[in-house]
From TrEMBL:
Transmembrane segments: none annotated. InterPro entries: TPC11. Residues 1336-1349 have a biased composition (Basic and acidic residues). It comes from Schizopora paradoxa. Residues 377-526, 602-679 form the Trafficking protein particle complex subunit domain. This is Trafficking protein particle complex subunit 11 domain-containing protein. Residues 26-66, 110-141, 578-600, 1322-1361 are annotated as: Disordered.
Length: 1377
C-alpha cells in the first residue's frame, strides 16, 4: 500500500493528545521552607516494573532509587501507546472498543490556525480582500488545493496528528514535606501548618492558572480538556484533598464531567484499568466533537447544493477556473465520511464514501473536461478515487459482506478501465494501464492479508478456484478491460472468482499477472524506441517512460508470485508436504491414467500453488538465473498432478522450459531424460518457449503455441552422436512410468482366464505402434519409433493380489533386435518365446526371442507367443517392461507399466490365429490380460440329514456327514455358524459337547482315508417365533501330516488347508397353534368393602366386586405335518396374582400323557377372579396384565432323544368391562311347588363419582304363579359410589313347569335435572322436585356372560323385554314337591 498516501487509506480513530508525561518525573520541587527538614523518600515498596523486584528503602551502598512518578509516567506512556496504533485494518474489537489513537505532545503544543487572511500582495499586485479561510481550502490563495483541488492528505493528517478531539494533561499535585518528628513542640507544629497551607494555596493557584491557559486553546476548537493530577498514595487520605481539588476545578473553569482525575503510583493491572476507564469517560465528548464537525460540513454541502454559483463568487477575478460544485460535493462527502469513521459509524461512513466516489466519477466523465488527463489535478483525483475504493471495500469487509467488497473492486476496475481507454488514451497496450490494474489487485490483496492477520482474523469463504479440465485450454488475457484477470489465471472452472472472494494469494497472483503484462508492454515500447533510433527516426517515448525504465519489473513479478505462493499454501487445503514445505510430495489420490481430473475445489486449489511456482520459475528463467529456475521446475514436475492426470496442454510448457534450462546449465543427462519424457507424452516437438527470455505476459506464454519447432527425435539423436553420458559405464534410466509407453502393449492376452496349478496356458503379446489424438481430435500413429534405435524389449509377468496390488518375483520375456532386409520384414512378425514358468529358480525365469524392432510401417505388429504355467496359485498379468535405446556410447532404459497405459490406443484385444494370411479373432471377455491360477481342490462331499422342519423350543437334530472322495488322506475340521434370526431371538446350537448361540469352531472329524465317511450330530434349539434358521458350515480339509513332512513343489499347493463352505436352512414352525376366547361375569356373593370389618384392611384381602370373573377358553391345535406329538404334561403357570387369581382350570394333571396327531386339538377352560385397581375404569383403553400361561411339556413321538421340550402359551390380557349402577338378581335354578324360596337383588353403584337414588317396584298380576312377600313399591337407600344395597322377596310357587315366569320387577334411578339442582333446598328435601328417571338393568347372575366391550354373549333364555324399556321377565323351573 506504499503506492498511496497513508493518510487516505489508514483506519481513522478518535484522536487523544496526551501531554505532561515526558516532564511529570522531571518536575523540580520548590525550595523547602525554612525550619523544616527535608522530606523522606517517597514510598516505593508498592511500585515495581514487570520482571523486577520492588524497590526497597535506602541503605548504605545501595543504588539510588528511581522516582515512582518517573516509573508511573513510563508505564502510562506504554499503556496508552499500546491501545491503538495507526493501521489500515482495524479489528472489530478495537473499532468498537472505545479506544483512542494516542499522540504524545508537549504541554505547550499549539494547534494550527483554523482560518487565515489572504496573503500579502507582492510588489506590483493589488491587495486581496476577503474573509479569512482555512489554509487547506481551495478558496485560499496559499492553499495547495487552490483553486480547483479536492482533498489533500494534509487535511486528514491535520485531524489525526495536529488537532485532537480530547486533550489529556498530566500534572503533578503539590505535596508539602512531612512535619517535624518532634510532636511536643507546639510552636513548630503551628508554623508547619501555616507554611503548608500557604504553599499549597500558592502552588494550586499556579496549577489552576496553567490549566486555564491550556483550556483557552482547547476551547477555541471545542476540544475536551481533561486533567490528571499525579500524587502519592498518602494524599488520598488527606482531608484537605477534596477542597483543594474543588478550588483547582473552579479557578481553572474545568467541566463538571470527566475533567479532573487523581492518579497515584499503582500496579500494572490497576494502571491498565485506569486507562480503560479514562478512555470510556472521554469517548462521548470525542464523538460529540466529530459530530459537530460533521454537522458543520453538512451545512456547507447543503448550501452548495442549494446555490451552486455561490462557491465561484469567492474567487472571482482569478485566471484559473474554480472548483466546480461537483468537486465541492466530493470534498464535503469525503469529509463527512472521515468524521463518521472517526466516530466508528461504519455504515454512515460507507454511505458518504459511496456518495463521494460517485460524485468523483461524475467529474471524470464530465463532458466539460473538468479533469483533463495527465494533469496534476487529474492525478490527485485518480489517487483519491483509488483510496476511496479501498475504504469502501474495507467497510464491506468489516460488515461481513465479501461479495459486495469484491463487486466494488470489479466495478472500480471496469469503470476506470473504460475511462482509460475511451477518454484518456491509456489502453491495454500501455504499461501505464497494467501498472494501475496491478496496483489495485495488490492493494486489495494487502488489505485482505492484513485482515487475516488481525485478531480475530477476517473470515475468507472456504471456496477456491478450480483449473480447467484436460479438454479445455486455459484462457488468455481477456481482450476487454472490463473483465477481470481471473480467467487469465484460472481459466474455465466450476467457480467464478469474479463473484466469490478468494484469499489474498489469488489477488497477489492477479497483480503478478498484471506486472508481467506491464513488463511486456514496456519491452514493446522500448523496442519501438530503440528501433526508431537504429533507423534514425525521431520517436518521442510516452509519458513516464524514464521512470518506467528504472522499475525492476522482474523483481516485482517475483515478489508478487512469491507472496501468492506462500498464501496459497497457508489458506488452501493441506498440500502434500505440509504448508511450509517448499518441496511438495505427490498426492495420494491420483486418477487413473488417461482419465480427466476431478474438477473439485480441493484439487484445483492444490494445483494452483504449483502453477504459481511455475510462474516463479519462468521469472527466474527470464532474468537469466537458470539454476534457480531449474530447482523450481524440478520441484514442480516431481509433484505436478498434471503428469498423472494427463494435463498435456499445461505440462508441455513446464517440460519445455525445464528442457531449455537443462541445456543452458549443461546437464546433458537431464536434457536426454526430458526429451524422452516429452516424446513419451506425445509431444513430437520440443516446444521450447523462446519468448520466455523476452516477456512473461500471458500471450507470449500461451499454452497453444504454433511456432516452428525442431523435431524432438532429431535433436535427441544429435545429442547421442555428439555427446557422452556423465557415467559412461551405467545406462541412463528414464523413470516416467506414468506416461504412455513407446510401444502399444495393450494386447497382452491369455487364452483363458483361469487355470489350475502346473497347467499350461497360452499367451500372446502384440507390440505395435501406438496411436494418439492430434490437435484436431483425430487418431494418428506415433511415428517416432522408426527413428529410435531400440535394441531390446523386456516384459515382466508378475503375480499380484487384486486387493493389495502387485507383489512377488517376476518372470521375464526378453526380445532382442535383429537386423533384417526390407524384403524380409513382414507386416506381422511372430516370435515364439517358448515356455514361461513361474516357481522355478531365479536364473531360469527368463525366456528369449529375437525380432526386428523397427517399425517403419505404422501397421507393423510383432506378436510374442508362448506357454505360461505356474507352480503356485496366484493372479498373474504382464505389468511392466523396459525398452532399451542404444546409440553411440549412450544406453537409455525407458521403463513403463502396462497397467497404466492411457486409453488412447485403438488396438482392441484380439488373438492371432493365422499368419498367412494374418487373421485375428476378438477376445470379448473381461480382464483378458489377467490369468488366475487356482489350487487343486480337495474332493470332499458334505451332506446334512434332518427332518423337514423343526419345532420352536425343540432340540432339533441335524446329522453332518463328511466323505473323503480325494485320493489322499485328509484331516477334517468343521465350523458351524448360526446366523441371527429375524426377530432377534436367542437360538442355540450344540455340537460335539459344546453349546453356543453363534459360532462353534474346530470340531474334528478325524483323519479320513479315501472313500471313508464320518458323521456327527448337531442340535438346533430354536426360540422365539417361527421362521427360517440359517446355518453356515465350514469344512476345512488338509492332507494328513502336511505340516510335519516335506512335500514336493508340485503337491505343495495341494497340501495346504482348504475350506468348503455350505449353507443350509431349517424351517422352524410352532408345535401348537392356539386361540383364546374370554368372557366376563359378575359376582353377587361378594359384599365388597366393609369398613367395619378389620379383615378388609389386611393385605391378603381380595375384593372382586368391580372385576367379577373372567372365563378364558383356549383351543390348542397340533401343528400340521407328518409327525405326531406326545404331550407329556399340561399345567397353568400363574404369574400375576395382584389383580387376578385362578379359581378353576378344566384340565387336570391326570389327563396326560396323550398323543396328538397333526390337526388334533383340545380345549381348556380357566376361571379367574379379578380385582382391578381403583383407577382401572377411569381409562377405557387400559387392561390388566396377563394372568399367566399354560406350560406344555412335549416331544416328537418318533424322537429317540429323551429331551422334553416345553412350550408356553400365554393367556391374553384381561379387560373387564365397566359397570355403572347394576342390579344383580340371585335365585335358585330350580324350586319346588308350594315351598317358599328367596329372591334377592343386590343393587351396586359402581360409578366412580355419582350417587344413586334407586327405587324398586314389583308388579304382581293375577296370572302370576307366585305369592310374593316383600316390598312392592318403595325407595331404596341412597348409594354412594362403591356402595351396594340388598332387597329380597319370599316367593311361594303355585304352579309347576320347566319355565315359569317370575313377577315383573323394575328398578329406577332418579337423577336430578340441572334446573332442579338450582331450585330450593326444601323442594329437593321433600322429593317433589322434577328429575329424570332411568331404569336400572337387572342381571340374572345365573346367565351372566359378557364380552370385554360389555355386550352380552347371548340373550337371556326366557327373558322378554318390551321395546324401548328394560322391562324383563325372568323364569324359573318349578318341580313338584
Amino acid at each position: 500500500m506504499n503506492s498511496y498516501p497513508a493518510e487516505l487509506i489508514v483506519q481513522l480513530a478518535p484522536v487523544m493528545f496526551v501531554a505532561g508525561l515526558d516532564s511529570a518525573a522531571n518536575q523540580q520541587r520548590r525550595p523547602q521552607a525554612s525550619g523544616t527538614s527535608p522530606p523522606p523518600p517517597a514510598p516505593t515498596a508498592a511500585v515495581s516494573t514487570q520482571g523486577t523486584a520492588p524497590v526497597a528503602g535506602p541503605s548504605s551502598g545501595s543504588k539510588p532509587e528511581r522516582d515512582p512518578f518517573a516509573i508511573l509516567a513510563a508505564r502510562l506512556r506504554d499503556a496508552l501507546a499500546s491501545q491503538r496504533r495507526p493501521a489500515v485494518w482495524s479489528p472489530e474489537a478495537v473499532r468498537k472498543g472505545k479506544i483512542f489513537q494516542v499522540t504524545f505532545v508537549d504541554k505547550n503544543v499549539q494547534f494550527p490556525p483554523r482560518k487565515l487572511p489572504p496573503p500579502l500582495p507582492e510588489a506590483g499586485q493589488q491587495p486581496q480582500h476577503g474573509p479569512n479561510r482555512s489554509p487547506l481550502s481551495p478558496l485560499h490563495p496559499s492553499s495547495p488545493l487552490f483553486p480547483d483541488g479536492l482533498i489533500a492528505p494534509l487535511w486528514v493528517r491535520k485531524h489525526t496528528a495536529l488537532v485532537p478531539s480530547v486533550f489529556v494533561l498530566f500534572l503533578r499535585l503539590y505535596e508539602h514535606p512531612h512535619p517535624p518528628t518532634d510532636t511536643s513542640d507546639e510552636e513548630a507544629q503551628r508554623v508547619y501548618k501555616e507554611e503548608r497551607e500557604r504553599m499549597e494555596k500558592d502552588r494550586d493557584a499556579e496549577l489552576a492558572k496553567e490549566i486555564s491557559q491550556r483550556k483557552e486553546g482547547t476551547n477555541e476548537r471545542s476540544i475536551k480538556l481533561t486533567v490528571v493530577l499525579l500524587a502519592n498514595r498518602g494524599m488520598l487520605d488527606d482531608p484537605s484533598l477534596d477542597s483543594r481539588l474543588s478550588n483547582i476545578r473552579r479557578r481553572a473553569t474545568l467541566d463538571a464531567r470527566a475533567a479532573l482525575f487523581v492518579l497515584t503510583p499503582v500496579t500494572q493491572t490497576e494502571l491498565h484499568e485506569f486507562v480503560r476507564s479514562l478512555q470510556g469517560a472521554l469517548i462521548d465528548p470525542a464523538l460529540e466533537y466529530y459530530t459537530a464537525h460533521s454537522k458543520r460540513v453538512r451545512r456547507k454541502r447543503n448550501r452548495v447544493q442549494q446555490n451552486p454559483s455561490s462557491v465561484s463568487a469567492h474567487i472571482a477575478g482569478q485566471h484559473a477556473p474554480p472548483l466546480r460544485p461537483e468537486g465541492w460535493t466530493v470534498r464535503y462527502e469525503y469529509k463527512m465520511a472521515c468524521f463518521a469513521e472517526f466516530r466508528g459509524e461504519d455504515e454512515v461512513a460507507l454511505k458518504h464514501f459511496q456518495d463521494s466516489y460517485n460524485a468523483l466519477l461524475g467529474l471524470f466523465t464530465s463532458i466539460s473536461g473538468t479533469l483533463p488527463a495527465r494533469t496534476k489535478r487529474w492525478a490527485e483525483a485518480k489517487v483519491l478515487a483509488d483510496c476511496i475504493n479501498i475504504k469502501i471495500c474495507k467497510l464491506y469487509l468489516y460488515n461481513a459482506e465479501p461479495s459486495l467488497a469484491l463487486g466494488q473492486l470489479n466495478s472500480h476496475l471496469r469503470r476506470f478501465a473504460e475511462l482509460s481507454i475511451k477518454m484518456w488514451g491509456i489502453g491495454e497496450t500501455t504499461y501505464e494501464y497494467w501498472a494501475w490494474v496491478g496496483r489495485q489487485y495488490r492493494v486489495f490483496a494487502e488489505l485482505l492479508e492484513q485482515g487475516t492477520l488481525s485478531v480475530p482474523p477476517l473470515t475468507i469463504p472456504t471456496v477456491v478456484p478450480a483449473i480447467p479440465t484436460a479438454n479445455t485450454s486455459a484462457g488468455a488475457v481477456p481482450a476487454s478491460a472490463s473483465t477481470t484477470l481471473a480467467s487469465s489465471i484460472i481459466g474455465i472452472g466450476s467457480l467464478n472468482p469474479s463473484t466469490h472472494l478468494m484469499h489474498p494469494g489469488f489477488y497477489y497472483a492477479a497483480a503478478a499477472t498484471c506486472a508481467e503484462k506491464r513488463r511486456a508492454r514496456f519491452l514493446d515500447a522500448l523496442s519501438a524506441v530503440e528501433g526508431a533510433d537504429t533507423e534514425g527516426v525521431q520517436q518521442q517515448p510516452g509519458p513516464g517512460f524514464a521512470n518506467e525504465k528504472k522499475s525492476d519489473h522482474l523483481g516485482t513479478i517475483l515478489e508478487l508470485y512469491t507472496k501468492s505462493y506462500e498464501l496459497f499454501k497457508k489458506f488452501g487445503p493441506s498440500l502434500p508436504g505440509g504448508p511450509g514445505s517448499p518441496i511438495l510430495q505427490p498426492q495420494d489420490n491420483q486418477n487413473q491414467a488417461g482419465q480427466a481430473p476431478v474438477n473439485s475445489f480441493s484439487s484445483g486449489s492444490a494445483r494452483f500453488p504449483l502453477w504459481v511456482a511455475y510462474r516463479i520459475a519462468l521469472t527466474y528463467f527470464a532474468s537469466g538465473r537458470y539454476d534457480m529456475a531449474n530447482k523450481f521446475l524440478e520441484r514442480i514436475t516431481k509433484t505436478y498432478s498434471l503428469r498423472r492426470e494427463a494435463w498435456g496442454p499445461l505440462l508441455k510448457p513446464v517440460l519445455s522450459t525445464w528442457y531449455a534450462c537443462s541445456q543452458r546449465i549443461g546437464d546433458i543427462d537431464l536434457s536426454v531424460r526430458l526429451a524422452i519424457e516429452m516424446m513419451l507424452r506425445g509431444y513430437p516437438s520440443l516446444g521450447i518457449p523462446g519468448q520466455v527470455a523476452d516477456g512473461l505476459d500471458g500471450e507470449s506464454m500461451s499454452l497453444n503455441q504454433d511456432d516452428e519447432e525442431d523435431d524432438i527425435v532429431e535433436d535427441l539423436m544429435a545429442v547421442f552422436r555428439s555427446t557422452v553420458p556423465t557415467k559412461q559405464d551405467d545406462p541412463v534410466n528414464v523413470n516416467v512410468q506414468d506416461c504412455e509407453p513407446l510401444l502399444d502393449l495393450s494386447s497382452a492376452l491369455f487364452w483363458e482366464s483361469t487355470a489350475e496349478v502346473d497347467s499350461p496356458m497360452a499367451f500372446q503379446i502384440a507390440l505395435s505402434v501406438p496411436q494418439r489424438e492430434n490437435s484436431e481430435g483425430s487418431r494418428v500413429s506415433f511415428g517416432l519409433l522408426a527413428k529410435l534405435p531400440i535394441t531390446r524389449v523386456r516384459l515382466s509377468c508378475t503375480p499380484f493380489n487384486r486387493e493389495e496390488g502387485v507383489g512377488g518375483d517376476s518372470v521375464d520375456i526378453v526380445v532382442d533386435h535383429e537386423s533384417a532386409g526390407d524384403n524380409e520384414v513382414t507386416t506381422v512378425q511372430v516370435v515364439d518365446v517358448g515356455e514361461l514358468v513361474y516357481g522355478v529358480a531365479k536364473d531360469s525365469r527368463e525366456c528369449h526371442g529375437n525380432a526386428h524392432l523397427r517399425w517403419n510401417d505404422d501397421d507393423a505388429i510383432v506378436v510374442l507367443k508362448g506357454i505360461f504355467h505356474s507352480q503356485t496359485p496366484s493372479d498373474f498379468k504382464f505389468t511392466s517392461g523396459v525398452v532399451t535405446i542404444a546409440e553411440g556410447r549412450w544406453t537409455v532404459n525407458v521403463p513403463f507399466r502396462l497397467d497404466q497405459q492411457l486409453p488412447s490406443s485403438l488396438t482392441s484385444p484380439r488373438w492371432l490365429v493365422s499368419l498367412s494370411p494374418p487373421k485375428f479373432i476378438p477376445m470379448r471377455r473381461n480382464n483378458v490380460s489377467v490369468l488366475r491360477i487356482k489350487e487343486k481342490r480337495h474332493d470332499v462331499n458334505v451332506k446334512f440329514i434332518h427332518e423337514d422342519h423343526a419345532f420352536v423350543d425343540e432340540r432339533f437334530p441335524v446329522t453332518i456327514s463328511v466323505t473323503n472322495m480325494d485320493a489322499m488322506e485328509l484331516e477334517i475340521l468343521v465350523d458351524v455358524l448360526l446366523q441371527p434370526s429375524e426377530d432377534d431371538s436367542v437360538n442355540r446350537i450344540e455340537f460335539a459337547g459344546e453349546q453356543s448361540t453363534g459360532l462353534i469352531k474346530g470340531v474334528s472329524f478325524g483323519a479320513l482315508s479315501p472313500g471313508m465317511s464320518a458323521m456327527k450330530a448337531l442340535y438346533l434349539t430354536s426360540m422365539g417365533s417361527g421362521g427360517e434358521r440359517v446355518l453356515d458350515v465350514s469344512v476345512q480339509s488338509k492332507v494328513k501330516g502336511a505340516s510335519e513332512i516335506e512335500v514336493s513343489s508340485r503337491i505343495e499347493h495341494h497340501a495346504r488347508a482348504q475350506e468348503h463352505l455350505q449353507t443350509f436352512v431349517v424351517p422352524v414352525v410352532w408345535p401348537f397353534t392356539f386361540s383364546h376366547e374370554t368372557t366376563y361375569s359378575r359376582r353377587a356373593d361378594n359384599p365388597g368393602y366393609n369398613l367395619g370389618d378389620l379383615d378388609t384392611f389386611e393385605r391378603e384381602y381380595w375384593d372382586d366386586m368391580y372385576g367379577g370373573e373372567a372365563n378364558v377358553q383356549t383351543t390348542v391345535t397340533s401343528a400340521e405335518g407328518r409327525d405326531s406329538i406326545s404331550v407329556i404334561g399340561f399345567k397353568f403357570m400363574e404369574e400375576n396374582k395382584t389383580y387376578s387369581k385362578l379359581l378353576h382350570c378344566s384340565i387336570a394333571e391326570e389327563t396326560f400323557p396323550q398323543e396328538l396327531w397333526p390337526g388334533d386339538d383340545f380345549v381348556v377352560f380357566s376361571s379367574l377372579s379379578l380385582a382391578p385397581p381403583e383407577n382401572y375404569f377411569i381409562d377405557n383403553s387400559s387392561s390388566l396384565p396377563e394372568p399367566g400361561c399354560y406350560e406344555i411339556s412335549w416331544r416328537r413321538t418318533t424322537s429317540m432323544d429323551d429331551f422334553v421340550a416345553q412350550t408356553r402359551i400365554r393367556l391374553p390380557q384381561i379387560q373387564p368391562p365397566p359397570d355403572r349402577l347394576i342390579a344383580l338378581m340371585r335365585l335358585p335354578s330350580t324350586v319346588h311347588l308350594h315351598k317358599p324360596f328367596l329372591l334377592e337383588i343386590v343393587l351396586r353403584n359402581l360409578h366412580q363419582t355419582r350417587t344413586a337414588c334407586p327405587s324398586v317396584s314389583l308388579d304382581l298380576d293375577a296370572s302370576d304363579a307366585f305369592v310374593v312377600a316383600g316390598l312392592r313399591l318403595g325407595q331404596l337407600p341412597t348409594l354412594l359410589p362403591g356402595a351396594e344395597a340388598r332387597v329380597s322377596w319370599q316367593l311361594y310357587p303355585l304352579e309347576c313347569g320347566p319355565v315359569v315366569s317370575l313377577p315383573k320387577i323394575r328398578i329406577f334411578n332418579k337423577r336430578k335435572s340441572p334446573a332442579t339442582q338450582l331450585g330450593a333446598m326444601s323442594e329437593v328435601a321433600s322429593g317433589d322436585a322434577d328429575g329424570e328417571e332411568e331404569e336400572v338393568k337387572i342381571v340374572d347372575v345365573r346367565r351372566d356372560d359378557r364380552w370385554s366391550d360389555g355386550n352380552d354373549v347371548e340373550s337371556t333364555a326366557g327373558a322378554a323385554q318390551s321395546e324401548g324399556s328394560l322391562v324383563q321377565r325372568f323364569t324359573i323351573s318349578v318341580t313338584p314337591s
